[in-house]
Amino acid sequence: MPRKLKLQIEYKPEFRTIGLFSVQKDYRLSWLINQALGTDLQRLPDFKYVARGMDEPCRFPVFHHATPELKTRYFLVKNRCTHGHLLTQAKNMDYLFVLKQTEDYPVLDALLTQLRKMKDIQAAFTLDDKLDKQSTAFFYDFELYLDGII
Description:
Strand content: 25-35%
Number of strands: 6
Number of helices: 3
Low-confidence stretches: none
Structural class: alpha+beta
């Protein structure tokens, strides 16, 4: 009898994630970040996702800004919806500030410092070390969503 081979595809996302605590509404926080960082976060169609523990898809607001000279894209994603959380490992985070950059990440520390200085953001932390395989599935789905939008 021939041996069965398993195909294992390893996906390593090009995303870095910062968790944000803020009581502001998503559109207001987007505007405040635009003012503080000099970005132009624009609203995209909602990201529909079925997270662990959810029965039906939930809609998560997404805001996007691209910086072509740095080959960087910034996304502000709400982590909560009426049915649950986008990332269950980061339940207490209100928002995810996601960076997609094809080069190394020299802007991450400076960005984190600027976000922490904002009075409307109570706290900001990198989440890359705390995310598990469930978050890899989220990033894979998020990348597919972005390919259809951007």
